[in-house]
Amino acid sequence: MEKLRIVFMGTPEFAVGILDTILQNKYQVVGVITAADKPAGRGQKIKYSAVKEYALQNNLPLLQPVNLKDETFLSALKAWNANLQIVVAFRMLPEVVWKMPAFGTFNLHASLLPKYRGAAPINWAIINDETKTGVTTFFIDDKIDTGAMILSSEITINPLENAGELHDRLMHLGSGTVIATLDLIQKGNVTTHLQNDNSELKTAFKLNKENCKIDWTKSGKAIHNHIRGLSPYPAAWCFIKDKNQEWIVKIYECKFTVESHNNPIGMIISSKKEMKIAVQNGYITVLSIQFPGKKRMNITELLNGTTFTEHAIAV
């Protein structure tokens, strides 16, 4: 069997962990493809992707195509003479790209496919109160996350962990699963399994402002899952109104307590040390929050300088 010559495609920190493991295991990466640089933050400074930063630090050949069908890009990709491509958190590839290498192109997805196909599988698994998740490697086809599966690995979701913590555990799990997949391909021992669709499948929709907003009319458990499923990024948000003032705030951490009460939904009850919000079956106690123009702070820090009236409400 000929030696693997790998092109790696990815963008965020999750992909960096996988790329690093591939190199640590002495596989040859002949090139890296990542997103084009883009301005970010208030100053609109050009920001490199996490994968680009890693590629530059490790002197890996790098391409950043805007158009994946561009002839100049395709010629440069072909010149690397790869026989395998690995995709981790990148974008949908045109057929001319994923069919190029002799051994195909496989993707690592952070869910137990066919569950949670889509852009944000880690977040939605927590938001939807799943008790387990995992990672899957599969050969790419012409749709999103539907190709023939190679390997999958499963882990339990801790009922209190947030998306950031689960992300790190899945990155570690994914690294091992990618290496196991590479070993199978290198030895010519790959067997695949087709994905079985059914009506119960849940989708990992792209996160946006609308689906990150907290709905205070939901159950306390659902709100707690929503907040931890979006923490630390992009973060769940809501409006806080108090008399004639209104703020958009991000809530990063909370706890839910079941309790009977007659307070209106969203009512904020605060003291010098505690801030809790009335929900239909109890209270959400806010532990970590960010107000506009301020840094993220724990609730004691906030309440040292902020006092809410009895009219304060979260909506």
Radius of gyration: 23 Å
Give the number of domains: 2
> In total, how many beta strands?
18
Going by CATH, the homologous superfamily of the largest domain would be: Formyl transferase, N-terminal domain
What is the CA–CA distance across the termini?
61 Å
By CATH, the architecture of the largest domain is named 3-Layer(aba) Sandwich
Spatial ordering of strands, largest sheet: 5-2-1-6-7-9-10
Q: State the shape.
A: elongated
Structural class: alpha/beta
CATH topology of the largest domain: Rossmann fold
- Write down the overall mean pLDDT: 95
Order of helices and strands: EHEEEHEHEHEEHEEHEHHEEEEEEHE
Largest sheet: 7 strands, mixed
The proportion of residues in beta strands is: 25-35%
Helical content stands at 25-40%
> How many helical elements?
9
Ranges where pLDDT stays below 50 over 5 or more residues in a row are none
Given this structure, which CATH class of the largest domain is correct?
Alpha Beta
